[in-house]
Amino acid sequence: MKKLKVYIAVSLDGYIATRDGKIDWLTGFPNPENTDYGYADFLATIDTTLMGHHTYKDVLVLSETFPYPDKTNYVFTRDSIRTDTTFVKFISKDILEFVAQLKKENGRDIWLVGGGQLNGALASLIDEMTIHVIPVVLGDGLPLFGGIAMEKTFRLTGTKTYPNSVLELHYTV
C-alpha cells in the first residue's frame, strides 16, 4: 500500500505562497551550501505526483521541461474537458475517492505536491509530511492547508536544522 506524502516549504508564518501565488521569497532565499534539503532522496521514494491546477501551472513556469517525466502525474481540476498531456493526466472526479484508490496500488509512494486547497482536501489521507520552514514572514498568503474542514493530528518524528536557518520537520500519522 502506498503512502501519501507531503514534501513542501512554508514561511515562518505558515504560508506556501504569497496571496497572489508567488514563491519568490522561497526561490530567492539564500542557500550558500546549495543543499537540496533531501529532495533527491525524497523523490526516489515516490512514483506518483498529485497537484492542483494552479500548482501545475507554476511548475511549468519554474522549469523549462516538465520536472517529473518518470512519474505518473495527476493534476486535479474542475474543468472536466481538459486533455491529458504526455506527462500529465487531468482528474476532475471525486478527489478523496480517487486518491484512496491510488493508495491501494502497489509501488512507491505518492507525493502531494500541493497547493493549499488540495492539501486541505486530502488532509484526511496524508500519511507523512516533510515541511521545510523557511525563516521568512510573509504576513499574508496561501496557507499550507486551505479550506480544511476537519482536524487531524500528526506526530513529530524528526527534525533537522540547516546552516541557513531552514528547519526541516518530519511528521507521521
TrEMBL record:
Q: Which SUPFAM superfamilies match?
A: Dihydrofolate reductase-like
Can you give the residue ranges of the Bacterial bifunctional deaminase-reductase C-terminal domain? Answer: 4-166
Any single GO molecular-function term of the entry would be:
5-amino-6-(5-phosphoribosylamino)uracil reductase activity
State the source organism's domain of life: Bacteria
One GO BP annotation is: riboflavin biosynthetic process
InterPro entries of this UniProt entry?
DHFR-like_dom_sf (IPR024072), RibDG_C (IPR002734), Riboflavin_Biosynth_HTPR (IPR050765)
Q: Which PANTHER family match?
A: 2,5-DIAMINO-6-RIBOSYLAMINO-4(3H)-PYRIMIDINONE 5'-PHOSPHATE REDUCTASE (PTHR38011:SF11), DIHYDROFOLATE REDUCTASE FAMILY PROTEIN (AFU_ORTHOLOGUE AFUA_8G06820) (PTHR38011)
User: What is this protein called in UniProt?
Assistant: Dihydrofolate reductase
Species name:
Chitinophaga arvensicola
